[in-house]
């Protein structure tokens, strides 16, 4: 999605009306009404061929809602459910969203999500999550805020004062800014209850949305103002007011299902009800649409700034929600801190996420080794001895194989060319090496904060885990290899572990131990089943593991 494009309070003199093809927003009837009536008549005739033509649609309590092939200002787009890789693992707020397009032209498309009411208030108005652009950090949680914030206030006012300060969307629905809404209330032209307040929006580049529609990421619909305003009113009144302090926010699934049924896709709504994406959305709502207390600045351990990081082994904390919605590969993970840059960036690699990609050597026994996923950041060369394929080679045989020790944990890193030479000379076998692709990076202050919050914990005796971790790379010998040299990288069917058993082993030996003063761990609840399921889905899409049966249904 695109960076924010600021807008200001429009006036008739300062800004042209957007509805170049729709006529005056206050006109008696625009072309959408005509089309809605024709669609409604067709629906009635199809439902009962002998029935006389009618003037209202039988769906959504008599208000016209229908599927449309057109993307236009005022269109309602419904989050699709046919994508192979949907919104379970990231951007969960788009899952089964109901989006109203405020702008659609050759330069830009802007929309707001209509079905994500939060438990937050701004200037006395309940806030809806409008999208991930220009939300100003309001929905990040933990009191973190910042960046540009843009606010849209939908309303159905028809006075001249309201029209001057507003932009039309469809007949009967306009929007203004927060300042415009405040001015209308202050002047007596409107009540506070006349407005629905949305923070943030979603944006698309030219033709981007059309491409997403063609990939079944969205369903296109059209609805009249009665449907939209009634749904907004229902969402707002079904929940306790934010001032009640009960932290009630909405996932909006009822609104999405109702509109899906209205456009004839009720079976799809039934098929996907309660799936992983639904449950991940509910978790996103809990974490982001309910006010959360600001985190206190973690106490910095005495002497912590001078402690070397390389060689320390961490495991993800036992918190239930830390890595559920994003970076799922860190859930139940073990990490080796490899290096700290002069700029204070701590570089680590995940140790227990084997993938279906393997390295195979063109030797008589065709040795193969699974490549582990080390992190999302890619490294090429530099101080970590990463090879041309982006692979980091680690071993635990010390000076016998040589290389560079990673702190004092017993792990060494080695150049791939040196490792290949030792394998060919018979001084080592491929199973002596752990091969990792990618790293994770945190600013040191961020890392220490994660440790203080219990999101990460230090492993007391990591050397006890090395045999189990190295065993994750074992695969059966393969057939013909692609090349000699340092080995060929390929994808092959292998039996893979999710690595969680080693994480449990780390906890049982006392994660959180180690030197006093660095990352003292906090007690936390056991990880949630939802985070476990999200990890399994992540492993399928990004590490080549089989899709878990529950998610495949």
Q: Give me the secondary-structure category.
A: alpha+beta
Rg, nearest Å: 28 Å
Any idea what the shape is? Answer: elongated
Major sheet: order of its strands? Answer: 19-20-18-21-17-16-24
- Stretches where pLDDT is under 50 for at least 5 consecutive residues are 1-29, 47-62, 478-486, 513-525
Q: Roughly what percent helix?
A: 10-25%
What average pLDDT do the residues reach?
A: 81
Strand runs, count: 24
Give me the number of helical elements: 14
Q: Tell me about the largest β-sheet.
A: 7 strands, mixed
Strand content: 15-25%
End-to-end Cα distance, whole Å, is: 30 Å
Architecture overview:
By secondary structure, this protein is an alpha+beta fold. The chain is 24% helix and 20% strand. The protein is built from 14 helices and 24 strands. The protein has helices spanning 31-47, 160-164, 178-186, 208-214, 225-238, 253-262, 266-272, 276-288, 416-424, 444-453, 466-471, 500-508, 529-543, 549-552; strands at 65-67, 76-79, 98-104, 109-113, 117-122, 125-129, 151-155, 167-170, 173-176, 196-199, 202-204, 218-223, 313-316, 334-340, 345-350, 354-360, 368-373, 391-395, 404-405, 412-414, 433-437, 440-443, 456-458, 488-491. The strands form 4 sheets. It has a 7-stranded mixed beta sheet. β8 (167-170) and β9 form a beta hairpin. The chain is elongated and about 85 Å long.
Keywords:
553 residues, 7-stranded mixed β-sheet, 6-stranded antiparallel β-sheet, 14 helices, disordered N terminus
Can you give me a brief rundown of this structure?
The chain is α+β, with helices and mostly antiparallel strands and 553 residues long. The chain has helices spanning 31-47, 160-164, 178-186, 208-214, 225-238, 253-262, 266-272, 276-288, 416-424, 444-453, 466-471, 500-508, 529-543, 549-552; strands spanning 65-67, 76-79, 98-104, 109-113, 117-122, 125-129, 151-155, 167-170, 173-176, 196-199, 202-204, 218-223, 313-316, 334-340, 345-350, 354-360, 368-373, 391-395, 404-405, 412-414, 433-437, 440-443, 456-458, 488-491. The strands form 4 sheets. The chain has a 7-stranded mixed sheet with strand order 19-20-18-21-17-16-24. The protein has a 6-stranded antiparallel sheet with strand order 1-12-2-3-4-11, sandwiched between helices.
């Amino acid at each position: 999605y695109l960076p924010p494009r600021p807008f200001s309070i429009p006036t008739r003199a300062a800004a042209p009306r957007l509805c170049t093809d729709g006529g005056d927003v206050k006109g008696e009837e625009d072309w959408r009404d005509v089309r809605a009536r024709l669609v409604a008549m067709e629906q009635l005739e199809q439902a009962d061929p002998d029935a006389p033509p009618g003037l209202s649609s039988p769906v959504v309590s008599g208000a016209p809602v229908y599927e449309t092939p057109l993307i236009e200002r005022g269109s309602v787009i419904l989050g699709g459910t046919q994508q192979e890789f949907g919104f379970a693992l990231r951007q969960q707020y788009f899952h089964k969203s109901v989006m109203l397009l405020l702008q659609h032209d050759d330069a830009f498309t802007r929309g707001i999500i209509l079905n994500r009411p939060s438990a937050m208030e701004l200037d006395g108005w309940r806030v809806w999550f409008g999208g991930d652009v220009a939300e100003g950090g309001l929905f990040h949680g933990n009191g973190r805020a910042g960046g540009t914030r843009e606010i849209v206030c939908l309303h159905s006012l028809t006075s001249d004062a309201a029209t001057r300060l507003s932009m039309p969307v469809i007949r009967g629905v306009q929007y203004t800014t927060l300042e415009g809404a405040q001015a209308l209330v202050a002047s007596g032209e409107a009540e506070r209850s006349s407005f629905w307040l949305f923070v943030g929006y979603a944006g698309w580049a030219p033709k981007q949305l059309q491409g997403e529609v063609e990939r079944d990421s969205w369903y296109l619909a059209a609805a009249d103002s009665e449907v939209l305003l009634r749904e907004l009113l229902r969402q707002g009144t079904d929940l306790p007011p934010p001032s009640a302090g009960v932290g009630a926010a909405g996932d909006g699934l009822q609104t999405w299902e109702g509109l899906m049924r209205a456009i004839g896709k009720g079976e799809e709504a039934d098929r996907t009800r309660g799936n992983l994406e639904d449950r991940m959305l509910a978790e996103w709502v809990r974490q982001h649409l309910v006010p959360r207390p600001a985190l206190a600045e973690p106490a910095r351990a005495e002497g912590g700034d001078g402690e070397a990081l390389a060689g320390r082994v961490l495991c993800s904390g036992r918190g239930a929600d830390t890595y559920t919605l994003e970076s799922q590969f860190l859930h139940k993970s073990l990490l080796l801190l490899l290096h700290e840059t002069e700029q204070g960036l701590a570089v680590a690699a995940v140790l227990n996420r084997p993938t279906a990609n393997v390295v195979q050597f063109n030797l008589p026994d065709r040795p193969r080794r699974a490549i582990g996923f080390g992190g999302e950041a890619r490294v090429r060369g530099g101080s970590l001895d990463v090879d041309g394929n982006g692979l980091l080679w680690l071993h635990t045989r010390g000076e016998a194989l040589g290389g560079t020790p990673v702190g004092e944990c017993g792990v060494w890193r080695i150049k791939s060319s040196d490792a290949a030479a030792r394998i060919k000379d018979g001084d080592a076998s491929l199973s002596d090496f752990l091969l990792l692709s990618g790293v994770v990076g945190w600013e040191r202050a961020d890392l220490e904060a994660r440790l203080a919050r219990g999101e990460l914990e230090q492993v007391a005796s990591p050397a006890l885990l090395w045999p189990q971790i190295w065993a994750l790379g074992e695969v059966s010998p393969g057939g013909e290899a692609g090349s000699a040299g340092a080995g060929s990288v390929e994808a092959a069917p292998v039996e893979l572990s999710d690595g969680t058993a080693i994480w449990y082993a780390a906890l049982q030996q006392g994660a959180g131990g180690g030197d006093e003063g660095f990352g003292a761990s906090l007690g936390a609840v056991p990880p949630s089943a939802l985070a476990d399921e999200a990890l399994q889905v992540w492993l399928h899409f990004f590490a080549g593991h089989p899709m878990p049966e529950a998610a495949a249904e």
